[in-house]
Design brief:
Layout: H1 14-24, H2 31-38, H3 42-51, H4 53-58, E1 59-61, E2 67-69, E3 84-89, H5 90-95, H6 98-112, H7 119-143, E4 152-159, E5 167-175, E6 178-185, H8 192-200, H9 202-209, E7 214-221, E8 228-232, E9 239-244, H10 248-256
Length: about 260
């Protein structure tokens, strides 16, 4: 998505992004060690730590002067829970009943500042989303010959404390080196504005998750069946996958290749 409609990386210098990546892959790293690893003068490192929006908005310093990222770029992605309505593994999701899952999601949405107005319609959409993901995992269990229980799953991801980095994702599924950012709509037709909405936050996710993970957006239309195609992203040369809920496994297969 580097040339997509939104590219926050262009706001940040290569040095800023390198410093952030080092911080995000460690658990409390000091300025002098960042300087040593990157071969950048410590004065410049200290300047970036203080002045860069990446560090100000996505990192913090502990009492021992070690730097941490709000979301760590390592499995499991520590900190992801803090910005999700519900976060866990695929195995944990499959073991949990709908009522318990929904109660935890509502509580988590309040924690991350997700607006729960229009509760009746919103809860219906939450259940619809859950049923689609449950169906996906049933399909994968029949199709894949390798385990997926440790895949990370986040519902209602809301990283909205930052001025320059903002992420609003219905479902984020991290499967090894691939992360699927899924935008759900209870509709049966493709809307170009919703295609854009599905892709909008991918460049931000690429910064937060790091270069070791490819982020794939998809629009999931749960009001139809047997749909799987690619839709153009207006104003760009890109296309993104669009599918019905029952065909979501095809999106994963395109990038994971388990049906090859």
């Amino acid at each position: 998505m580097e040339n997509g409609p939104v590219n926050p990386a262009r706001r940040f210098s290569p040095a800023e992004q390198r410093v952030y990546a080092v911080i995000a892959r460690e658990d409390g790293i000091k300025a002098r060690e960042i300087s040593r690893r990157l071969g950048i003068d410590r004065t410049e490192i200290n300047r970036l730590l203080v002045s860069s929006a990446l560090m100000r908005e996505l990192c913090y310093q502990d009492r021992d002067y070690g730097w941490h990222a709000l979301i760590r770029q390592a499995y499991p992605h520590e900190g992801l829970y803090e910005f999700s309505g519900w976060y866990g593994t695929a195995a944990e999701f499959e073991r949990q009943g709908e009522a318990e899952w929904l109660a935890q999601l509502e509580e988590g949405c309040r924690r991350v500042g997700r607006n729960l107005n229009d509760t009746r319609g919103l809860l219906h959409s939450f259940r619809d989303c859950r049923n689609t993901m449950a169906g996906l995992f049933r399909d994968l269990r029949d199709m894949m010959d390798r385990p997926f229980g440790d895949w990370e799953l986040a519902f209602e991801l809301r990283l909205n404390r930052a001025r320059y980095i903002r992420i609003y994702t219905d479902v984020l599924l991290i499967a090894g080196s691939k992360a699927f950012s899924l935008e759900f709509k209870m509709k049966d037709r493709i809307d170009p504005d919703e295609v854009y909405q599905a892709a909008k936050y991918v460049p931000y996710l690429e910064i937060v998750l790091g270069s070791r993970i490819d982020v794939i957006p998809a629009l999931v239309l749960t009001g139809t069946r047997e749909l799987f195609e690619y839709a153009p992203l207006a104003g760009t040369e890109f296309e993104i996958p669009v599918c019905s809920g029952d065909m979501l496994f095809n999106v994963l297969n395109e990038y994971l290749g388990f049906l090859a």
